[in-house]
Amino acid sequence: MKELKDDAVVLRTYKSGESDRVVVLWTRNHGKIRVFAKGIRKPTSKIGGSLEPLSYVKVHLAQSKGDLYIAKNVQLIDQLKTLRGDYDRINAGYGVVEVIDAIPSDDVADEGIFELLTRVLLSLDNPEFHPMLIPASFYFKLLAHDGSEPVVEHCVNCEKTGPLVSFDAQMGGTLCATCRSGVSISADGLALIRRILGGDLAGVLRDASPAGAGEIMAIAQDSIEQHFGKRLKVARSTPPLAGPKDAR
Ligand SMILES: [Zn+2]
Fold first, then answer.
1. In terms of DSSP H, where are the helices of the chain?
2. Do residue 9 and residue 68 come from a single domain?
3. pTM to 2 decimals?
4. 166 CA distance to ligand 1 centroid (A)?
5. How many A from CA of 161 to the centre of ligand 1?
6. Ligand 1 centre from 1 Cα, in Å?
7. Whole domain around residue 44: which residue ranges?
8. For 193-235, what is each residue's pLDDT tens digit?
9. What distance in angstroms lies between residue 190's CA and the mean position of ligand 1's atoms?
């Protein structure tokens, strides 16, 4: 029986039978993995508390039938107490794991995505950072990781450097007044997206309500939907208190 040990983040879980769940993990070295967690919904379960969505864990797994694994041991790497205690932070985290779950890459390891994901969790757990722009920032970083970083330094159509007045998710960047398409972008919004992509993410996240935040959140959402070609329902609507569990 094949066994593996790895670091992982729980993307979501769904019910299976009376007292069991299937837990979907994104692992550092083995990509996306599904774990059949027998008895996890019983109050006596030893692993139940450590396999909730957004848990950051070390796992020891053994291959079961097909592509399902069973958990031999699970340990929390970080309890993420600040994240766990704040509904806005949890919601922001759900938006991010939903996008990762939408990545069509079962069994394909991508350590870069794992690194981005754990940085999101630790940022959401950092009381100095405001959670509002963490999902949008993550979507931009994920686009960059996939080789589709938005163009924000010049017009994506004619390459003129300014003034840039709109952003078109389909074209993948900003446009000048002559070429304009997509949605309007303000000078504040443009400055914000440049800071996020240009290395000042920490500065952006320390600001409770940076000017242009609403615009940037909508642009990030459109861009990531364009990239994956599907509408992301958790990130766009307010999820129920139970989160994305039992979504299917
Ligand atoms: Zn142009």
1. 81-84, 87-101, 111-124, 134-145, 187-197, 201-206, 213-228, 233-236
2. yes
3. 0.87
4. 10
5. 8
6. 58
7. 3-79
8. 999 999 999 999 999 989 999 999 999 999 998 888 766 655 5
9. 15
